[in-house]
């Protein structure tokens, strides 16, 4: 049995791994019954508000994209979710771990990110069933004068 303070620490660790800060606006895309509710709860706890759903019109700091192999075209979805994303915002593509139903190959995420002009910046383990891949806007190359 997990002590209450250990459960709280786990939630904080997940929010830390995802770089979630208080007052951030987080939009969730691709929710289904298989998502990790502990991850969702940790994010809501840290940002201090509920996650926005797919229909929200607000500018967001973070998009939490739950993605499975049979969810369609990842490139098209990334282009769609970039629309409300703030200039310094990030997209977390959360996928089932290897060996689980819906697993997505890392090369597929990398290809979709590259095509969408996003850069993959890190990968994290989010508990038993999910992995997270952080995507951000590519920075423009600095020109030498």
TrEMBL record:
Organism: Halopolyspora algeriensis
InterPro entries in UniProt: DUF3052
Protein name: DUF3052 family protein
